[in-house]
Structure formats: C-alpha cells, structure tokens
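$ run holo --ligand "1PR" --emit tokens
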Amino acid sequence: REHRPKLYILDYGAGNVRSLANSIKKLGYEFEWINDESDFDRAEKLIFPGVGAFSQAMDSLRSSGRFDSLIKYIQSGKPYFGICIGMQVLFASSEESNSTKGLGVIDYPIRKFSTVDGGKKKTVPHMGWNSSWKSWHPSSSSTSSSSTSSSEQDKVMLDNEDYYFVHSFAALLDPSNPTSNEKIKDFAYTLSRYGSEVFVSSVKKDNVFACQFHPEKSGPAGLDLLKRWLEASPESLSAPTTYSRGVWQPTNPSPSRSSGNGLTKRIVACLDVRSNDQGDLVVTKGDQYDVREKSTSTGEGGVRNLGKPVELSQRYYLEGADEIAFLNITSFRSSALLDQPMLDVVRQAAETVFVPLTIGGGIKDTVDPDGTPRSALEVAGAYFRSGADKVSIGSEAVLAVEALLQREQRGEEPLSGKTGIETISKGYGNQAVVVSIDPKRVYVDTSNPQWKDEFPAHHLESLVIGDNATSRTAPEERGKAWWYQCTISGGRDVRDIDVVQLARGVERLGAGEILLNSVDRDGSGKGFDLDLIKLVKDAVSIPVVSSSGAGSPGDFKELFERTESEAGLAAGIFHRREVGIDEVKEGVEGVGLNVRRCGL
Ligand code: 1PR
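-- output --
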C-alpha cells in the first residue's frame, strides 16, 4: 500500500473539531491528534482547525507550551493547513485582543469588519457562504502563462466555489493605504468581499496554506479542497511558491458576484425533534406549535411523525440545504446532558452532513436526577463535541434578557456574565450562539379612541400599524394594530417582553445570530411575517434567520426582496416534499440574488 504521510491535527480544545475529523474520515484518511511535543516531529502534515477567539487560541498555545513547537514545525517546511483561527494565528496581531501577539509568520494585522457600510448597517459576524477569487491574475503578457501559472495555483483551491465563513475579524485590505497591502501580497492566495471590504480568504506560501472559511462545513466544495490537500505529496505542498504571479487583482473579476454584499442568501432546513408516544425520536411538525394530529373521537391525536432525524438531515444536505437546524422540542427533559438520543442524532448527522448544524432545546443550567448541577456551558459543550456548530437558546434567553433589563433599571451592571448566552459565547465565540425567538402577535383594539395612550410605552418599538404593514396584509388586518410578545416553553407561556427588547438584549449578551420564528405563522404556509422580520432586523446588527410560514418558493423571494434577512428557514414544505430546496434557490436566484449551487 502507498505510504501515506502521517497526518496530525492540533486541537486546542476550543470548539467543534469533530466535523473536521469526520470529513477526513469520510475522505478515507487517518490522522492522529497532537498529544505532546514529539508529535510535531512525527507529523508529516499538520492541520490546525480553530473556532472562537484569537486570544484563547494563542493563550492556549502558549500555556500548553505548543507555541514554539508550532513555529518550529512551520519553519521546518512541512505542510501546514490552518482553518479559520488556524489561519489568523499566523498573523502578527488581531484587533480582537490587542494585547495578544500572533505567531507572526505573516507580518500583517487581523482587523474587525466594519459594522457600517456606505452609511448602512452591516451585519457582523460575516456568516454564511461567500465566494473567493485568486488574488493574482496570470499576467496577460505571456501567452502560455495562464496554463502554467494558473495550474500551479489551482492545485489547492478552485475558482468560483462558495465556502462557509463565520468570523468577525479578518485580514482586511486597506484601500487607503496600498503600501500596507504589500506586506500581505506575498501570502494572499484568494480574496473575498464582504460589502465594500475586501479580505484575504486564504493564504498560501511555500508549505503554509490556510483559509478563513471552514472547508469541513462547506459541503462538496470544501471536501474537495481538503481532498486535494490530503492527496498532494508533502514535497509538492512544501515546494517554494515560485510561479509568476501576474497581476494583483483586488476586485472580484466575476460579474455574477458583483451584486449584494458577497454572501449568498442561506436556505435552512429545520427539524423539530421530539419523542413520540412510543418513546422514539421523530421529526415532527406543528401548526402554531401544536404537533399532535387533530384529535379523534377516541381522544388526543398522536405526535405527527414526518421521518427520522438523521435520515432527513442527510436528505436535506444532499438536496443543497445551506444549514440544518435540529430543535429538540420534547417538553419534559430531565437533563439535556443525559439526553443521549439527541446527542446521538447530532453525532450521526455530523458524520455525513458537511454543512453547519445548529442544535436547540434545553440549552440551560440544569440539574441531573442525581443532583449534579450542569451549566448551560457544559450542555453546549457536549453538543459541540458531538458535532454541533451552533447551539440555539430559546426560553432561557427570554429570562436572561428580563433579568438584564431589571438590573439596568435598578442601576446595576446589566451583564452578569453568568447567563448561558454569555458563558457559551465567551467560551466558543458569539458565532456559536443562536437565540431562537418565539413571538406571538398581540392585537390591540384600535376602535378604542384612547388606545394609543393606553398602549404600554415599553412595547412601543414592537408596535405595527396594519395600514403601514409590509406583509401581504390580509384585508382584515388593515386598520388593526399589533405588537409582538415573546413566549417561552414552546409558545405556551407569554412574558412581558417584546421582540425588539429581546433581540436587542440577546445581542448585548453576546448572541451571534437570531432564529426568528412566529407562533402565528408556524405551519400556516401563509408566508413569512415580514413586519416581524423588519422590526428585528432593524433592531440588531447580527444575522437573522427568518422562520415560520413558508408555503412556496415565492415566499422566500419575497422575504429576501423585501427584508434584509440573511437566511430563510422552512420545515413543513420540505418534510412533505411540497417544495424542493433547489426550487427555492432557483426562485431566489431568479430575482438576482446569490445562492449556493452545491452541485450534488
Ligand atoms: O426553549 O431553549 O428549550 O428551546 C426550545 C426550542 O424548540 C425553541 O427554539 C422553540 O422555537 C422550539 N419549539 C418548542 N416547541 C415547539 C413546538 O413546535 N411545539 N418548535 C418548537 C418551534 C418552529 C420552527 C419551525 C418553523 C418553520 N418550531 O422550528 O420549524 O416555524 O415551520 P414551517 O416552515 O413548517 O412553518 P428552549
């Protein structure tokens, strides 16, 4: 059998490295984890995947004594492949933590994306699928150059592929200071654009290759990239980069990608999972959160069963879903950590699904039946280790924001640092924390002439006047007014907090994304609640995944044309095979927006 170079992965314990491990296994390769310093000597190829915070990665490299070994490894000329934070650590510094120095292999700073672009708010983190282009265009002067130089360059990455990014900091080019860009030109392999900012999406020089995106989460395109690096011999990967570089190309040459902010609109498939009356975990789907069959004369109907969670997630991956969400809606959970079936679902799904996985339901401080307390951070950690990329927090987020507002009212420090949102985002990065909101419309009696005076002032920001509404307002809604009240426990209990207060509060606590449901529209097929989505989008700077009510591909077109939402999520229409993910994407593409075509 051919000699396979010994592959090692450096894990500093920060996040979900299981997906990378799964994708390497799927490609038929074996690897070892770096356990001690001598492993750096044994390694013939090294991958350093990373998520989370720059300072945490660097601190852990220093405290574990691996800083020097890693530098030595890179200097030895053996192939290095960095992913996300594994790319950023190569740089001199990061604005994320000014006091922390990077490895300094690349003498250039990592900076934060701007949250304002052309006078408009820009969502940070940069989360989703974006394309990249080669930073150097083969020079047109030498006729044969395009074949020689580009084939050399094309060994690792292909053009016009979409990859999955999630980060708030990047190696940004500085248009106001072109000379500073000279320092990065030697390393920049591909560039990508987020709004008006251009950043380095991968670097390649001699033995060093690293990408800002996550190949292990980038579907077939990402697996293909990993495969090419794994297949290549260490000698070819380490060969000095000698090709003639041609012309520096700081703007995207692809006309199809000149519109929008660079990101594709994401289409998310959602699986509400719970145990049925026989105790098996099934994918279910409710109408306005009621997941039981209509009751029969013999009593309450059973839990609707639309399939098996792992099988369905695989189907959606193959059909081109950009992301998959599992929500564990089982009403009575003793402890999520003991909820092994759900952890198994995540583990099994992550073996074959190579797009981001979000897991929600029961992410909170709990106590095991034997009295052992478990923090939300521990519960989340168990899901990340099983293969989840993000956890979604529902009820607990409402309670956390209520407490934050109360502390603020009392003039105390609003952030306790103790909530699940805070501890998980600190430990795993904001991008790993989604807050799932379940709001309900509350109608106001506008026939009462005093209604505006009587309306609670603290909910005014979530008030919608039907005549100004943006949804396909049903005629009966004209002349009406309503506000959006938050609920907990799967829509069963209402709280005195509205959707704008909640969205702003969770952003302050450190949530990286909002999953915005609507109890009224759930399962209705009436289309997304655009009024609700606009309110929340305007209130925050983090991405918003819009959910509930999709009935046709046209609903997604409308969502993306009329709101700034980054992603559209549906459940029922996909489960019942009424609409294909490809049909949805075709529709969105038809109105001139970018979508990921996954080519499976
Ligand atoms: O409160 O942290 O334990 O989280 C519970 C999670 O479970 C929350 O995210 C909450 O939204 C969800 N959940 C709880 N009960 C239900 C239920 O249906 N009885 N499902 C539930 C929420 C809404 C979406 C659904 C979309 C799209 N379901 O997940 O997939 O509405 O559906 P559609 O396209 O068919 O309209 P915690």
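-- notes --
The chain has a mean pLDDT of 90.
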